[in-house]
Amino acid sequence: MSHPLYWLGRVYFYPVGNTSAVCLTEELPPEHKADVLLLGCGDPRHVLYTVYADMSTSHEPRKLDITCCDVDAAILARNTLLFTLLADEDAEVRLPSIWNVFYHMMLDENSLSVLIEQCRKLVPLAESLDSWRQGPYAHVVTMCNSDTLSEIGRFWKLWLGTSSFNVTQAERFREDFKNGMKTVRKRVEDSVVTTSMRSAGPLAAVTLFAVSEHFKRFWMTGVTDDGSPATKPANNPNPTFAFSLFGDEFAVHYGTDPISGFHLAEALASSGLESTNKTALVIPKVVRTARQQFSTWCKAVIRRVQNSSASSASLTVRMYAGEALAFCQALRSINASAAHTPIFIAPWRRSTVQLDDTLYSLRAPSPAPTSFNVIETSTLLDHLGLQNLLTATIPLLLDSPSSTLYTEALLPAGHSPVQGILDHMCGDLSTSSLLLGVVPSAYISRFTTRSNTAETTMEAMGESHRSQYYERLTWKHINFGRLSNSSHKAEVSFTAPQLARKLFDIYLRMFSGEDLRKKNAILSLDKPRAQRLIKSSMIIHYSRRSFALLLAHIRTRVRSDWNRVIQDLEALIRQDRTLITGSNFYQETICQLYLAGFGLPRFSLVDVRKFRSQDDLPIFQSWSKVPDVVTIVLVVPRHVIAKVQSDLSGIGTPFFQCEIQLNPMHAAFASISGSFGKLKVSGEGENKMAVVVEDRDGINGTSPMIVSFPVLSSTLIYMSRGTVGLAICPTSGNPALIAKLGLQLSLFNVPLTDKRYVHILTRAPTTGNDTINSEYTLGPPKLDADSQGHPIHAEMDKSNTEVQSLTAHVNIADPTGQASLASGCAVTVEQLSLNKAKLHVDQYEHVISFPLPVDVANAKLRIARKSKYVEVIAPMTLTLNVKGESDITRNFRMAFDCGVPTLWSMHRMDLDRCPSFKLSKSRKAFDWLGLHVGLMFSQRECMSRQQRVTLGSTAPDTFKNLKDSLYTLFITAAGSNGPTQAEFALWDSEEKRCYAMILVTDIRLDLGSHTVVADSWIIPWSNDFQGKLKIARTLSIKTDAHESAAWRHLLPLFIERCRTWKHKPSCEYFVHNSVPLYPGAGSDPKQVSWCSCGVGVGTEMVGERYGSVAAKYATRAAISPLFAVSYMEKVGGTIDDLTEPALTRCVGCGKGGVPLFACSKCKRAKYCSKDCQVKDWKTHKKNCVLT
Question: What's the mean pLDDT when you consider all of the chain?
Answer without folding.
Answer: 88
